[in-house]
Specification:
Elements lengths: L9 H5 L1 H11 L5 E2 L2 H4 L16 E3 L4 H14 L2 E5 L15 E5 L6 E5 L4 E4 L5 H8 L4 E2 L12 H7 L6 H4 L6 E7 L5 E5 L10 H5 L8 E8 L1 E2 L3 E9 L2 H13 L6 E6 H11 L9 E9 L1 H17 L2 E6 L3 H12 L1 H5 L5 E4 L2 E2 L5 H15 L3 E6 L4 E2 L1 E5 L6 H18 L18 H4 L2 H14 L25 E2 L2 E2 L8
Parallel strand pairs: 2-4, 3-4
Antiparallel strand pairs: 1-2, 5-6, 6-10, 7-11, 8-9, 8-10, 12-14, 12-15, 13-14, 13-18, 16-20, 17-19, 18-20, 21-22
Helix pairs in contact: 9-11, 9-14, 14-15
Length: 497
């Protein structure tokens, strides 16, 4: 493993038996996993290049049990790593040797659906797609739809602020979460947000969504559900060059058209997805756009025509509009199968996640191609073109000496490029361990120190998900204590965390 993680605390490991016994009293029955062979499924997440079995796994069933586990671990100085479905592609749920892995898979119920107020209350272990399945009979859906939506859990989506193909129009997780129930490291249970549109006071809900399990453990989520549009149509557009496809994306948005989704695949991705899903993608193109429009029938028909016009102006070589909903879903089946499809053409792949301004797409893709040649590794590009969220997949073979390290170096160069052209390190996968050491590329020491102060406000002992996000995690005292003079803090009228 080329990324370093915090050194295990030998004193905690020496007390392993005592800690496991205490956890069994809190979560009896089969709620604690401790045998080495039973811990194997938990040693990694979606970033499978890195593995580390946890000290133990605890699987609570109630918020009270989560609170008790956290309270005990906090009092004993034991680290806690929260885990949902384990699909994180940035190593966000990677365990530590001296940590308790807190699995939330048993929190799998839809608690309430309020169609009148267009919301649902769910537990964090509910899969993303299951929310839509629970409400679709009444004509509703949950908008964020990551490619892993059949498996990823809503709690993990909240942790990573997950996106998906339809987030161009409907927003990412933070735009679709109304409230959470949160268990703090000391066991306190609090609620942020709720069923109303906006909560009063500080936007702490906005802090929690995307906090990657560093601030608390989410045990309940209130999400926004939306009426399904009257019509949805998709068009496949093939181009002879990636530059033409990228310019088409910019021109569609530039004309004020906001599709429900706008995805791009390069030639390699198209061939892999078609071989896997057999959905009828054109194989003689260098780039393929999937553009979906939704809304009233007349609006969709008009906008499809406008998109086709813009595509022709950008030298599109083929267009195909879905004739019915089954064909539209088939178009998306190929795109959503792109990741497993690439798994058939390479022993391993490293999926990156960076976001850039749309206008820089042609330049960035050209430079990634140059990096591919210099690093000697192939790359397949599949990404959310509408919002500039790139997902290059670097192909490598972990059984060949040095290829993983070359893939990591290639990925780091891509992320540095994203920041260089005015983008950011991540769009939806989070920082985790994968991008942790690149944080100084984007943030100054002052920026990182302020972020760590938020961490300290929620988790003073730095016990929640350590080793993630921050390249160097300072103790809270090292960041400077709040100055108190004659019993008064500076600016006492300001609200504080």
């Amino acid at each position: 493993m080329s990324l370093t993680m915090p050194q295990p605390d030998d004193a905690i490991l020496a007390r392993r038996g005592e800690i496991i016994a205490a956890l069994r009293r809190i979560v009896p029955g089969e709620g604690v996993i401790s045998q080495p062979h039973e811990l194997k499924p938990y040693e990694t997440d979606g970033l499978t290049a890195y593995r580390q079995p946890p000290m133990a796994v605890v699987l609570p069933e109630t918020t009270a049990q989560v609170s008790a586990v956290m309270r005990y671990c906090n009092a004993q100085g034991v680290k806690v790593v929260p885990r949902g479905a384990g699909t994180s592609l940035s190593g966000g749920a990677l365990p530590l040797a001296d940590a308790v892995l807190l699995g939330l898979s048993k929190f799998s119920r839809v608690l309430d659906v309020d169609y009148e107020n267009r919301l649902a209350v769910v537990q964090p272990g509910v899969t993303n797609l299951a929310i839509t399945r629970a409400v679709e009979e009444m004509g509703f859906f949950y908008a964020p739809d990551p490619s892993s939506q059949i498996a990823c859990s809503i709690g993990g989506n909240v942790a990573e602020n997950a996106g998906g193909v339809h987030c161009l129009k409907y927003g990412v997780t933070t735009n679709n979460v109304l409230g959470v129930e949160l268990v703090m490291m000391d066991g306190e249970i609090i609620r942020l947000g709720g069923r109303q549109l906006d909560a009063a006071g500080l936007d702490l809900l906005g802090v929690i969504v995307g906090s990657e399990g560093l601030l608390g453990v989410v045990t309940e989520v209130t999400v926004r559900i939306l009426p399904r549009p009257q019509t949805a149509r998709a068009v496949l557009i093939g181009f002879a060059s990636i530059q033409s496809a990228a310019q088409c994306v910019a021109d569609v948005i530039g004309e004020g058209i906001i599709p429900a989704a706008m995805e791009m695949m390069d030639r390699s991705a198209v061939h892999a997805a078609e071989a896997f899903a057999n959905v009828g993608y054109p194989l003689d193109v260098e780039a393929l756009l999937i553009v979906e429009l939704d809304g009233p029938l007349a609006e969709c028909d008009y906008l499809i025509g406008e998109v086709e016009r813009i595509a022709r102006a950008n030298a599109a070589v083929t267009t195909r509009v879905s004739r019915n909903d089954a064909e539209r879903l088939a178009f998306w089946a190929g795109r959503k199968a792109a990741f497993p499809a690439v798994g058939r053409i390479s022993p391993d792949y490293y999926c990156m996640d960076g976001t850039i301004p749309r206008r820089r797409l042609p330049e960035v893709l050209q430079r990634i191609a140059g990096m591919s040649a210099s690093h000697g590794l192939r790359v397949v590009n599949v990404f959310h073109a509408g919002d500039g969220n790139l997902h290059p997949m670097i192909l490598y073979d972990a059984n060949r000496a040095g290829e993983l390290e070359r893939a990591e170096s290639f990925g780091n160069d891509i992320l540095r490029l994203c920041v260089e052209v005015g983008g950011v390190l991540t769009g939806e996968h989070g920082v985790g361990v994968e991008k942790r050491d690149l944080m100084p590329v984007m943030f100054s020491e002052i920026d990182l120190a302020h972020q760590q102060r938020i961490k300290c406000a929620f988790d003073p002992g730095l016990l929640l998900n350590p080793g993630k996000v921050f390249p160097t995690l300072h103790r809270c005292a090292e960041l400077g204590r709040m100055h108190v003079h004659r019993g008064q803090v500076s600016f006492p009228d300001l609200p504080r965390l």
